[in-house]
TrEMBL record:
<dbReference type="InterPro" id="IPR045089">
    <property type="entry name" value="PGGT1B-like"/>
</dbReference>
<comment type="function">
    <text>Catalyzes the transfer of a geranylgeranyl moiety from geranylgeranyl diphosphate to both cysteines of proteins with the C-terminal sequence -XXCC, -XCXC and -CCXX.</text>
</comment>
<dbReference type="InterPro" id="IPR001330">
    <property type="entry name" value="Prenyltrans"/>
</dbReference>
<comment type="function">
    <text>Required for male fertility and root tip growth.</text>
</comment>
<comment type="similarity">
    <text>Belongs to the protein prenyltransferase subunit beta family.</text>
</comment>
<keyword id="KW-0637">Prenyltransferase</keyword>
<keyword id="KW-0862">Zinc</keyword>
<dbReference type="GO" id="GO:0048229">
    <property type="term" value="P:gametophyte development"/>
</dbReference>
<dbReference type="Pfam" id="PF00432">
    <property type="entry name" value="Prenyltrans"/>
</dbReference>
<feature type="domain" description="Prenyltransferase alpha-alpha toroid">
    <location>
        <begin position="4"/>
        <end position="295"/>
    </location>
</feature>
<dbReference type="GO" id="GO:0004663">
    <property type="term" value="F:Rab geranylgeranyltransferase activity"/>
</dbReference>
<dbReference type="GO" id="GO:0046872">
    <property type="term" value="F:metal ion binding"/>
</dbReference>
<keyword id="KW-0808">Transferase</keyword>
<dbReference type="InterPro" id="IPR026873">
    <property type="entry name" value="Ptb1"/>
</dbReference>
<dbReference type="GO" id="GO:0048364">
    <property type="term" value="P:root development"/>
</dbReference>
<dbReference type="InterPro" id="IPR008930">
    <property type="entry name" value="Terpenoid_cyclase/PrenylTrfase"/>
</dbReference>
<keyword id="KW-0479">Metal-binding</keyword>
Length: 308
């Protein structure tokens, strides 16, 4: 089995942010805030967050008003990424907590669901993001948790999985969002853990990788979505951890750094983060443990909730 090329991945992540006019950077322009979260969290898991200028990152985050990039409209997706990045650096004190909380509260609909922004798209991803964000800010009581949980449960399917809206197809990404939100609100007893665990462990294919739905190709990012869900419902022993570790390591570019969706594909910061985070969940040596519900290193989550 190969080894994680940590130093190469650190160099790769740091180089991505510097190449502002590269193809990858232009394509990712609307996702720059998410990209910052993926890259910085991966660095922290690898114990290399000190390679970044904290003040530069914090002032950049505070300059844009919680859109995907400077000058973009606010959206709940980027709001969570910003809060998570500030949490990594122990800089949550710079957040106008009431303002952010009021924005998130304004996006909860009558049925308990959440919209992503003022345009009203509804998706269980936004339920997770809202719940995770207000929880990190110690404002979970400001949303209607009971209604939020009820809406998430209404998206549960006969196969034990969850979709993006009621009746939507079960998908590993949505399952993570729903299970994560239920974990944060202390509602995991509402999940059929054996049925869902069975659906999730069926996502492992011959190569050891995981897919997001039946009959799809494996993809490194599901090493996070599927694995974290299995851990939260205590069914991770139903898959082969060794095969999955090998699959993730096979997706590395061992010369230039970075991790791709499948072996020999082009690397990107998204899959680099999910590969490293997946290995952390698999207790790969030398990596900091990551919290499966909050998608932040365990020491960061402990600091948020348990430090004086």
């Amino acid at each position: 089995m190969g080894e994680l090329a940590t130093d190469k991945h650190v160099r790769y992540i740091l180089s991505v942010e510097k190449k502002k006019d590269s193809f990858e950077s232009v394509v990712m322009e609307h996702l720059r805030m998410n990209g910052a979260y993926w890259g910085l969290t991966a660095l922290d898991i690898m114990g290399k967050l000190d390679t970044v200028d904290v003040n530069e990152v914090v002032s950049w985050i505070m300059s844009w008003g919680f859109g995907g990039n400077v000058g973009h409209d606010p959206h709940i997706l980027y709001t969570l990424s910003a809060v998570q990045v500030l949490a990594l650096f122990n800089k949550l004190d710079v957040v106008d907590v009431d303002k952010v909380t009021t924005y998130i509260v304004s996006l909860q609909n009558e049925d308990g669901s959440f919209s992503g922004d003022i345009w009203g798209e509804v998706d269980t991803r936004f339920s997770y993001i809202a719940i995770c964000c207000v929880s990190i800010l110690h404002r979970l009581d400001r949303i209607n948790v009971e209604k939020a949980v009820k809406y998430i449960i209404s998206c549960k399917n006969m196969d034990g999985g969850f979709g993006c809206t009621p009746g939507g197809e079960s998908h590993a990404g949505q399952i993570f969002c729903c299970v994560g939100a239920l974990a944060i609100t202390g509602s995991l007893d509402l999940v059929d853990k054996d049925l869902l665990g069975w659906w999730l462990c069926e996502r492992q294919v011959k190569s050891g990788g995981l897919n997001g739905r039946p009959e799809k190709l494996p993809d490194v990012c599901y090493s996070w979505w599927v694995l974290s869900s299995l851990i939260m419902i205590d069914r991770v022993h139903w898959i082969s951890k060794e095969k999955l570790i090998k699959f993730i390591l096979d997706c590395q570019d061992t010369e230039k750094g970075g991790i791709s969706d499948r072996p020999d594909d082009a690397v990107d910061v998204f899959h680099t983060y999910f590969g490293v985070a997946g290995l952390s969940l698999l207790e790969y040596p030398g990596l900091k443990p990551i919290d499966p519900a909050y998608a932040l290193p365990v020491d960061v989550v402990d600091r948020i909730f348990f430090s004086k």
